């Protein structure tokens, strides 16, 4: 009986942890327009879930979180529905193709591939937000289907094969175009991700059935994400994205580097792994500190500019 109680307690602790991960990941995703899937999948891989099952679990949870997130962003006026349609439908096609592709790979082959994709996304997120933060918008012509269609197709494929990537691929590309303000870029990407999550989940269920998918984990991630979604939609105007992006990017890099170094592809010993971890931690800490300083400097410049305008008036 005591052993059953201990087992039940361990399962409950695991579910609570997953719910907290879902909450934290959705806060990040709803504020940056990226990283829910990357963050959640990275954790599931770290605790031993197979790559296809991890991505399937996250995408099933995302059906609920993206729906709630999209509705919240819509209520706060953060959604451009033309952009949602132009990028979301090709994204769904790419996601379905990526899910069926990943389902056909063996775990030994898929795990390092997924970690490489996640590692690349983590490096991109860390570098992007540490160096630039969110770009300033410069509104121009409407975004065209010939730009959004291929972008959605690639982002959807990367998202399902890497367990995340819709936001890291789609959000910066739209921001860099200068044609949609940041809050509407983030809101539109989060809303269109609902279509991607449905298509990817369908692809995984076709390829895997329910094999390896723990629906209690799906529910835990979903509950945490649903709680965080409306908060994130409101916080998108208030959180410093630069600091948040640097922190999340470093976490993704560290976790997936650990997975790669312990994989059969590399099989590095402690003498190699620990120096690599120390270097990553040092770079990560430096990146977060730099982002914090740049954020403070930006705030100071904004205050000085506001004071000048007030004095001139």
UniProtKB/TrEMBL annotation:
Q: Which domain of life is it from?
A: Bacteria
Q: How does it sit in the membrane?
A: Multi-pass membrane protein
Q: Tell me the keywords, alphabetical order.
A: Cell membrane, Membrane, Transmembrane, Transmembrane helix
Identify the main location.
membrane
**Subcellular localization:** Cell membrane; Membrane
**Organism expressing this protein natively:** Actinokineospora guangxiensis
UniProt-listed InterPro entries: TM_pro_TauE-like, TSUP/Inactive_protease-like
Tell me where the transmembrane regions lie. 15-37, 83-103, 109-127, 215-236, 243-261, 273-292
Which residue positions does the secretion signal occupy? none
Cell membrane in keyword set: yes
Q: What is the similarity comment for this entry?
A: Belongs to the 4-toluene sulfonate uptake permease (TSUP) (TC 2.A.102) family.
Q: Please report the name of this protein according to its UniProt entry.
A: Probable membrane transporter protein
Q: Which Pfam families match?
A: TauE
């Amino acid at each position: 009986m005591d052993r059953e109680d201990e087992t039940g307690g361990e399962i409950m602790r695991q579910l609570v942890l997953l719910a907290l991960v879902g909450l934290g990941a959705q806060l990040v995703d709803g504020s940056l327009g990226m990283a829910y899937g990357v963050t959640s999948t990275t954790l599931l891989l770290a605790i031993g879930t197979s790559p296809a099952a991890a991505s399937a679990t996250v995408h099933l949870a995302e059906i609920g979180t993206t729906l709630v997130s999209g509705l919240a962003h819509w209520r706060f006026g953060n959604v451009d529905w033309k952009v949602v349609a132009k990028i979301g439908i090709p994204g769904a096609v790419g996601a379905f193709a990526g899910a069926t592709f990943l389902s056909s790979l063996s775990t030994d082959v898929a795990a390092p591939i997924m970690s490489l994709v996640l590692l690349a996304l983590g490096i991109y997120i860390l570098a992007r937000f540490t160096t630039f933060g969110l770009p300033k918008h410069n509104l121009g012509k409407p975004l065209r289907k010939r730009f959004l269609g291929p972008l959605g197709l690639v982002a959807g494929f990367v998202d399902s094969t890497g367990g995340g990537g819709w936001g890291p691929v789609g959000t910066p590309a739209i921001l860099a175009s200068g044609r949609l303000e940041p809050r509407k870029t983030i809101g539109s990407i989060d809303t269109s991700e609902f279509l991607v999550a449905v298509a990817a989940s369908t692809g995984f269920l076709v390829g895997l059935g329910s094999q390896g998918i723990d629906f209690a984990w799906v529910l835990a991630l979903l509950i945490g994400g649903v709680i965080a979604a409306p908060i994130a939609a409101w916080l998108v105007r208030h959180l410093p994205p630069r600091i948040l992006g640097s922190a999340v990017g470093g976490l993704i890099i560290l976790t997936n580097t650990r997975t790669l170094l312990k994989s059969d592809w590399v099989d590095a010993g402690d003498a190699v792994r620990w120096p690599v971890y120390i270097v990553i931690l040092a770079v990560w800490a430096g990146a977060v500190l730099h982002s914090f300083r740049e954020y403070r400097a930006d705030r100071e410049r904004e205050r000085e500019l506001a004071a000048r305008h007030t004095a001139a008036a």
